[in-house]
Fold:
Amino acid sequence: MIINKLNLLLAERFIKASKFSRDTGIAQSTISKIVNNSTSQIDYSTLDKICRYLNITPSDFFEYDPINVLFQSFSKDTENEDDINKNFSFFIRYGNGTEIFRTIKYEVYVDIYAEELYVIVSPVMSSSEDTAFTKYIKNLSLGIQKALSDEIELFTKNRLIDALNLDKSYKFDINIELIYKSPL
Structure:
């Protein structure tokens, strides 16, 4: 997984995105997409302007972790189903490079209240299960953890829109847990 660190780099230097946009001539909308890691590509000339302005190299700008994710089988859980709440599940296969080292089931709990959706996505693991994997996820940088969480959110939103026959423009928030959190 590759992400950029522009948000962090600007914060470290106390530079607002609007000032950065004015000073570099890069459109505010482009800066916003880059800061939020919501762009799939960055033009070389844009990257050059960013690096020159911040006095960094491209290797300072990008962050890489070889974690790989593969989403599988989003489906409705029929067990304990009622008329109000909908429950779904899916699997994520985690790996690095070509090796898959963990497959984890994620449960999706959807509460429909007053025409709004409240969605929680969390993994299904026992507290003693796979502490090495949990430690691995916790040791990922916050940027990589956020990118991973964003991927899970996008996957879940797209599948829920289809499964619940919602309009594609329907907006709702999802609370995502990447790893097992033991009860207090």
